[in-house]
Amino acid sequence: MPYLFDLAYVRIRFIGRRLYCLAYSTWLFVAVLLRSTKKRELIVFNRCRAWTLVAAGLLAVASLFFVACTSDDDPVNSNQAECTLGSEGCECYGNDTCDELLACLEGSCVGISPQPDADFPEDTDGMPDTNGMPDAEPMPEPFEPPGLQELENAEQAYDFRQTRTCVSDGPTACEPDEDPLPVMWFERQIDYQIHQDGSADLHSGEEITDPVRDSVIAAFDAWADQDCTGLDLTFDGLTDEDTVGYAPEGNNANIVVWRDDSWPYGGFDGVALSTVTFQRSTGEVLDADIELNTADYDFSDSDTDVKMDLRNVLTREVGHFLGFDNSPEPEATMYDDLPEGETKKRDLHTTDIEGLCFIYPE
Question: Lower Cβ count inside 10 Å, N or C end of the chain?
Answer without folding.
Answer: N
